[in-house]
Design a protein that fits this description.
The chain is of the alpha+beta class. It has 5 domains: about 1-65, OB fold (Dihydrolipoamide Acetyltransferase, E2P) (Beta Barrel), CATH 2.40.50; about 70-145, OB fold (Dihydrolipoamide Acetyltransferase, E2P), CATH 2.40.50; about 170-410 and about 480-545, no CATH class; about 415-470, no CATH class; about 560-645, OB fold (Dihydrolipoamide Acetyltransferase, E2P) (Beta Barrel). Helices cover about 30% and strands about 30% of the residues. The longest helix is centred in the C-terminal third of the chain and has 34 residues, at about 525-555.
Amino acid sequence: MFEQHQLKILDMDSDGQATAKIINNSKIIKINFDKKNIVFKKGDLVSALIKTNKKKIVKIIINKKLNIYTSFFGTIIKINSKYLIVKKLSSKSEDLYTVPLKNVKNSYLKKIKMGILVKIREVNKKKLEIKNNFLKQCDLLQIYGRLNEFDFFSLITIDEFDIDNNFTEQELQEASKLTFIKDNSRLNLEHLPIVTIDGKDAKDFDDAVYAKRLNNKNWKVIISIADVSFYVKENSLLDKKAKKRGNSIYFPNMVIPMFPEIISNQLCSLNENEKKLCFSVEIILNDKGEKLYHKFFKSTICSKKRLNYDEVQRLIDSNFNKHILKNSELNLNVKNLYEVYKILKKKSEKRSLDLSIDEKKISFDKKGNPCNVKKIYQLESNKLIEELMILANVCAAEEVQKSKNENVYRVHQKPSQEKMNSLIKSIGKPYDKTLKNNPTTPSTFNLILKNDKNLNEIDTLNQLILRAQSQAKYNLVNIGHFGLGLKNYVHFTSPIRRYSDLMIHRRLNSIIENNTSKNDDNLDILKKTCDHISQTERTGISAERKTFERYSTYIYSKKNEKSFDGKIISIKKFGIFVSFDKNLVEGLILKKHLPKDIYIYDFKKERLNGEKNKIVFELGNKLKVSIRETDIFNGKILLNFIKLL
């Protein structure tokens, strides 16, 4: 049965898939491309028929654009005593609007300057005649800084995605009353040389780790996670806010934390040389990586060193040279952790999808202006922590299954047949035969990646396989985790920044306290919570991606005199998408900007064929490009084609 809804279109990708918000409940949804739908664009308010089956959306029909005044961004280009003139922020639009100053809040009047960004909304009034131009009247909703000011791109993304980025005075007061409490009933681990290992810029430390070789050649691993559940009680103001946010969001230059910083960076963060309350798990492994035993318990720890990934990698590369980390106990602990990692890695390589996707980072100068895009290469030290966290999450999944209550699992379905068909079409020979002749498992994908002899194509293969994957989410039904190759998986290791983990901590706590027979959870509320935190995660990922695109577009808007080597990563009827400058950024070459010809789009093989010049553009082609046009607000780069390489 279809229901009528109003949707706000938040974003659209190159495949025509849109992200939208349902107006009446603020739920964020995905709209797959459908040529039967009316044409709509980002920012539109539309009427839609939505069909659901067991609360899952199965069909969306966009049937009407709604004529309603929506807000948009612009820059002030003129100020006088009576009005502002604002130019709509867009690469092509020359639309001008006016804001009568008599309607502007007094608090905004002092901040108004030439060239700054503002958010405005049309009002249903007559146009004003200003120097023979008839301009639409607008209300001034918000004032931001200039295009290159420190927080600009993050702030407009926060606004665009309707992200809650403020704590109320009552919430902050509740947080300020929380203090460290010594708990003698906990196991004291303060004597152990426990360490944290995180990125250089990290400020909230969820996890601390320790490993020891036992006499019988087995390994003891202790993974200690910040005990947020001890401080943040269910249904408190802070708990309700954390549940609403679902997760922390990490922009290039700021964080929207799930909890106030007094909790996330101070009280619960496992800072160096500070006593902290933790939820720990002790795990015994044999030399094959098989888990022989695990036990969860409450603890007090004191991290002896705040290490970052680069420092640990230097230790690994130096074969744990004692002159780098001069404390022998800490050195031995990190060495033991590395030995455990190697054992776990051998085991995980046989079961999990081994994609190699390097992260990218925006660098800022001393004034806070974005200046560069950098790759963050995955080090062994990153993977060390990743394997340990997966191990702890598996133990938590097995433990919560002892409870009769419903549990919040982290699940990941295998790729749909539709996505597999698309991958087979895109990946081409000889890999298509591997996909057709083998079951859809992580091992099948790994076989392709392992057997590829052309290292230059490995990025393309990784991206194509990544595009084929389903999206992981939270669910009460345990269907396993395809990507990790695990039957049981939950999130336990990051309660400072993920609400799902806080829920698992509470379930584990009830098991420790022998409340396993208790079964008073409201199933409907739990299901809604799973849907909600899955959606807040997707919203966060989309917001982080959009902000990165805006910063990177701003950076490359200053490089229009340069040419770059690139590679085709996607081909559509209207043009080709290119990853360029060592795969740091992506841009689009419109079909009309390719060498003059009639191009036929081959949907099955995903390529463009030139009828006269016989030029063929297909996935993986190398080419030289330059910057043609940048749309900073939308984070889009248009490229010029120079030549095939």
